[in-house]
Specification:
single chain; 197 residues; rod-shaped
């Protein structure tokens, strides 16, 4: 089974190498400082210890450079994240403003729909036998056409903006308004048919 462990970051690798090199240098320098130099053999060991310390110092310098480069990589990643976040924040704010505008228009549309549907209910209660109602129905139909046109425009904007919930709500309102318009047309036809010629 393959391991799903994420690869180690360059910063962690560099930090570990730096820590290891520093520990080796520290141990070698401490060993060297404790050395008693009282013979040719001890002097030889001391020279070898100095060479080893020089080697550790060089390795530590390389590890420090690698760590500094890894830190620069972290800073570059941080900067990129800051820029992406700022761009995304701007996009979120724009989408929020767009949605607020559409919701405001939808609320206004709902109010317009209520205002235009109220007379239809009144006319239905009074009955459709009076020819004097034809003018009122024509006015309601004219206003309904305007509200339906606004609902269509709002539906298109919701669809273009990829606001599925607003698109659905607006479509539902369009359907209700269209059904109301059909009802008004039917009432007008009944009145026209029953009007004396």
């Amino acid at each position: 089974m393959a391991s799903s462990k994420a690869p180690e970051s360059p910063l962690v690798t560099a930090a570990r190498e730096l820590t290891e090199q520093l520990a080796r240098f520290e141990a070698q320098s401490e060993d060297l400082s404790r050395l008693t130099i009282n013979s040719d053999k001890a002097l030889q060991r001391a020279r070898q210890g100095l060479e080893a310390c020089a080697g550790h110092e060089g390795a530590l310098s390389r590890a420090l450079r690698a760590f500094a480069e890894a830190m620069q990589g972290v800073q570059a990643t941080q900067q990129r994240c800051v820029e992406v976040t700022a761009t995304t924040a701007g996009r979120i704010a724009a989408r929020q403003a767009e949605r607020a505008e559409l919701q405001s228009r939808l609320a206004t549309l709902g109010e317009s729909a209520r205002q235009v549907s109220a007379p239809v209910a009144e006319l239905a209660e009074r009955g459709v036998e009076s020819a004097s109602l034809i003018g009122s129905l024509q006015e309601v139909e004219r206003r309904l056409d305007g509200v339906i046109a606004e609902a269509a425009a709002l539906w298109e904007l919701s669809r273009a903006g990829d606001w599925a919930d607003l698109e659905r709500d607006t479509q539902g309102m369009r359907d209700q308004l269209q059904a109301l318009r059909n009802r008004v047309l039917l009432m007008r036809r009944k009145l026209a048919d029953s009007a004396p010629s």
